[in-house]
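can u do me a favor
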């Protein structure tokens, strides 16, 4: 059976996880793949998200790329083992390698890692101005602020702008863009239309 791989991506605060959860309820025989499935399966190493971030802070950008690549792969490979017809991938490597490039990861090294990843059928990018994403954030993680010790709107905005600049390293030619400012129900309808029309 050929499984359809759909990535939902966008900047932090765009609503990726919320949309994926809604899509998974509407799409028959679908499953979600995300990076946290790997960390949850390794609770002897990571007791919480805070422990994951603490470990990530200790790594260099290139080392974090490898660490995150492992986690992204784990989530996808587990989903591929299922009988699901559709796999909804939360962010894929796009979400994680952009920040690492902004933090100084070697672009050529990152491209070599990207080349090893499975090609997907569809990428839907939630398009939202960074300032609007900021309004949705109740609190910030240090990862969203580029590991800046000051977690603030200013550090979030500054780092997310740097992350957006890294899209030049990804093949965005066939991405479909979805206005993330739409009302929740309309956003879901638009996303379902994109998925079903593909």
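np, heres the sequence
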């Amino acid at each position: 059976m050929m499984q359809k791989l759909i990535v939902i991506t966008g900047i932090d605060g765009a609503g990726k996880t919320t949309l994926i959860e809604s899509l998974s309820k509407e799409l028959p025989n679908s499953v979600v793949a995300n990076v946290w499935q790997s960390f949850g399966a390794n609770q002897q190493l990571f007791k919480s998200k805070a422990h994951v971030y603490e470990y990530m802070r200790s790594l260099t950008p290139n080392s974090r790329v490898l660490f995150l690549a492992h986690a992204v792969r784990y989530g996808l490979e587990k989903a591929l083992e299922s009988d699901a017809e559709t796999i909804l991938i939360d962010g894929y490597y796009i979400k994680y390698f952009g920040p690492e490039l902004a933090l100084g990861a070697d672009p050529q090294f990152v491209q070599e890692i990207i080349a090893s990843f499975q090609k997907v059928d569809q990428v839907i990018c939630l398009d939202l101005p960074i300032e609007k994403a900021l309004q949705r954030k109740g609190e910030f993680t240090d990862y969203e602020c580029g590991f800046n010790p000051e977690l603030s709107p200013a550090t979030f905005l500054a780092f997310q702008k740097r992350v957006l600049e890294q899209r030049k390293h990804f093949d965005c030619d066939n991405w479909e863009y979805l206005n993330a400012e739409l009302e929740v129900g309309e956003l879901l309808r638009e996303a379902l239309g994109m998925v079903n029309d593909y």
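The chain has a mean pLDDT of 89. hope that helps!!
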